[in-house]
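Case 227 in the screening queue. Each case pairs one protein sequence with one candidate compound; here the compound is zinc ion. For every case the pipeline is the same: read the inputs, emit a complex structure as tokens, and attach any notable structural observations.

Predict complex for case 227.
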Amino acid sequence: MTIHYKDQFETDHLKVIRHCIGPLAVNTFILICKQTKEAAVIDPGGESEVIAQVLKEEGVKATHMLFTHAHIDHIYGAESLKALIPGAKVTYHPLEADVVASIPSMCRMFGMELRSMPAKEIDLKDTPEFSVGMLQLRSLLTPGHTPGSVCFYIPEHQLIFTGDLLFKGSVGRTDFEGGSGSDLRKSLDMILQILPDDVQILPGHGKYSQMGNERANNFYLKVDRWR
Ligand SMILES: [Zn+2]
Ligand SMILES: [Zn+2]
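Case 227 output:
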């Protein structure tokens, strides 16, 4: 696995460290609560030793391993990272079960080594809201790209991790197994309705954006290509 680049930003309350990893250039995030020095890793795409080392250097304890969905690029490092930071609770939505079950065939399709998903410890159906240190996260079920895709929203700090639902200037594809164009449209409509313009978007691939920018400029949010 290659790390294409690493960057970070911080506010008074939180720090976000991003590693862009692997052949599909997934954004793997470390979200840190600066007050309590607790952290979550979001979509561990590989290079687990590097991620664990960064957590160590930051002096933080990972309490959660969060998954926006279970496509191979987003989970490739899950098993190896779980072994290094066993206290991080594996958290995803149960509607992602079929995608989890298809991980071996995805590995074969992309010519990657076989990987599996660690057992789910927090079920987002039962626990849609939870905290990482003092940071309150809300998971929003946003199917379309996959049935159990979620976004992790931090309303108090105007941040959202959108996985493969919404990118800068684009949206997630729906032609993989379990994808649904009409579900994606509904999920995007929901996001458009609830997110204020100044919410920062941290997608699963590519550059960051702001909701207002996407509302104004994202072609796919305007067209009715799915109906
Ligand atoms: Zn995906
Ligand atoms: Zn992806």
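Case 227 observations:
- The CA atoms of residues 14 and 33 lie 5 Å apart.
- The helical segments are 48-58, 72-75, 78-84, 97-101, 103-109, 181-194, 211-217, 219-222.
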